[in-house]
Amino acid sequence: MTLVICAIVLLGLALLATAHLHRLNTATTAVFMAAVCWVLFLIDADQYVVSQHADAFREFLNGAPATHHAAKRFVATEVFPYYVAVASNIVLFLLSTMNIVEILHNNGCFDFLTHWLRTRSPRRLMWTLGALTLLLSANLDNLTTAVLMLTLTHTLLSNDRLRRIYGFVIVVSVGCGGAMTVIGDVTSLTLWGEGLVTPTAYSARLALPCLTAWAVTLLLLTPKLPSRLDLHSNAAPYRGDDNLLPAWQRLLLLFIGIGGLWFIPTFHHLTLLPPFLGALCVMAVLWVVNELCNRALMYSDRMTRRRFPTALQYANIQNMMLFTGLLFAIAAVRETGFLHTVASVLAPHGGHMYLSGVVVGLLAALVGNVTALISGVAVFHTPLFTDMLPAAYATDGLFWPWLSLCASLGGALLLESTVAGIFFKRMEKATHTWYLRHATPRVALAWLAAALVFAAQALFL
């Protein structure tokens, strides 16, 4: 049965990697794969429970006979809820940040970005766009930031070719910015949720390598830029009414939203409660202030027309379902003991930490950065590695930031290996051929530069 479960996961990952060919919904594929794997797992539940959780199962039985039904009850009440809790931490966090961004967007808190970006200089636009995207993605989830910034480029640029170039700037900036903080990407959020990194130590390790990768990519793109830009007319976005909040109220909302997200690691450190609870608290406070600021519109039909783009809502929900399905599918493989076997095979080579990260990064290019990182955590977060090289594989060890960096940059090697890349393809009609020619070589060089900076930093600091 273990081989069957692994075969289904490999088939599912292959379908996810080739979604651009068969056009099956990736979230649906991942969720169905996870459900089938756990149903098959329950068929041999008694065997897996005895081999993986012998002591806990004996305590659970409390003298009762070890029947197949008892094994299924143990899985349903003791094993599976752990993975539900892990997935819920991420999903609730993303739901909270999605609602925070919705409130800020509906009140025009991001409109200043359009004014900052309006310039006839291609280089100035590239660096300003990249810097703003980098900062936003370090605090908001990657998909939300990518959609916001890609929408802005649509309002600014009329040339399809230029929109693809600047769209690639957004994809790279989103990946580098999201990797710099524990709240910036699903991958880093997963490491934080698993207790493998702490916010301050993680950001200290990755700030310089991520900035290096970002700067190298933009420098390599400079020769592709024209001498002058043709901009669209400066039309204000329509929100269902023409009454924007005063500037000070929009700044207040922005301060509460972004400042509250910065406070979440401190909230977790002080209370030891899950990070998503801090995000929910920030969302609630922002929601109350939003209603106070908009009290004149709350009971009018004008407020009902202030909608966040449904494409972003739909994409975010798909992203959450994709993550949940992948986590549950990898969890089923993990509970069979197969990943422990893989870890025991790799353990003698565990000293090659940098090579392991590169392999995970290449895997991220094929199956996606989230899938690769979850698989990497499942394989390397075992006593086989933590006991052998505790400085590298323990909490705040060198390997986990390196794994996150490789997953982020490796995922950017191909067009559809990150959620930002997928949305970029849909929005700008970018092709895989275009991405391989113009983007992949630059990302590879940026990855190499970031790796050298990471290794030098680890050696001398």
Report on this structure.
- The protein is mainly α.
- Helix 10 runs antiparallel to helix 22.
Quick gist of this model?
With about 450 residues, the protein is mainly alpha-helical. The protein contains 25 helices and no strands.
Topology:
Blueprint: H1 2-17, H2 19-22, H3 26-43, H4 45-52, H5 54-61, H6 68-106, H7 112-117, H8 122-137, H9 142-156, H10 160-180, H11 186-193, H12 199-221, H13 247-271, H14 275-293, H15 301-304, H16 310-335, H17 338-346, H18 353-367, H19 369-380, H20 383-386, H21 390-393, H22 399-411, H23 419-428, H24 432-438, H25 440-460
Helix pairs in contact: 1-3, 1-16, 3-16, 6-13, 6-14, 6-16, 8-9, 8-10, 9-10, 9-23, 10-12, 10-22, 10-23, 11-19, 12-22, 12-25, 13-14, 16-19, 18-19, 18-22, 19-22, 22-25
